Amino acid sequence: MNKYDELVQKSLTNGTIDENDIKWIMTSKDVELLPLLHAAYKVRYKYFENKVRIHIINNVKSGNCSEDCSYCAQSKESKNEIEKYPIKAREEILADAKKAFDGGSFRYCMVFSGNRQNKKDMDYICDVVSEIKQKYPMEVCVSAGFLNDELATQLHNAGVNRYNHNLNTSSNYYGSICRSHTYQMRVETINTAKKNGMDVCSGIIIGMGETIDDLINITKELKNVAAKSVPVNFFVPVEGHRLKEFHDLTPEYCLKVLCVFRFTLPDAELRSAGGREHHLRSLQALSLYPANSIFALGYLTTGGDGLEQTKKMITDAGFVVEKVEE
Ligand code: SF4
To answer: What is the pTM (predicted TM-score) of this model?
Structure first.
């Protein structure tokens, strides 16, 4: 059995691959990209066939965050002149949800800046979510900072299918990217969301100075929190970020990372997420071999390809846009 078939077999049989396999994928000169992508596709196909879920993000509240995540242009210490606004008007959010649904979005992701929402904002969020769920048969994901049981129950009762709270990097490295909260606080919010009936979306940002050992740890940590959905973001050095170290990512490196996540989290909804246009460039379509989902529109601070262009890329590459079954 060749090395690529071995990766497929381990992933499908054991639900993961070994640490040495990850090191081989990420560092060996023997690795050939196309056989690696083909092997990742075999695992992806078992759970998701050739379907692609499009996720549309609506950045519903922007800026003025009290946290200091050093990769984020919305952090309290960022000097970036991003557009800052309180929660958007109900009509605007609903109109965007309609546009997302009509455009073929599988899931509508509403992102609110800030570490925790106050009661007034949370009541408003839940009210809008209920109306979206009544009108449009698509899934709704919310990202609104830290949760306690009360907030999580409220979101779940409003119809939120999934809660997003990213781990972002490995537990060992977390202190290098953020000082205002801990990795453990993030894990607790993820567990609170699950305990209160929501699926969890938890992703990472590649290229913030993490090592291959950090990457190995992240795969284990995402498995531990049982994230059903894993957005893999590629760090774009936006103006105002304060990371001391960040990688110069190449398309090949990004594709290898996606393959690692497919082999280690075989049945997770793996997303080619923020930064894909910037770092994967002309190889973007190849990310669909390991990933079965993709973001289009609405990135927080970095722009992105339009919906129609994203759909064209998917169908041109022979994949099928997946809709929620009504
Ligand atoms: S990532 Fe979220 S919590 Fe961190 S600074 Fe940005 S908006 Fe705030």
So the answer is: 0.92
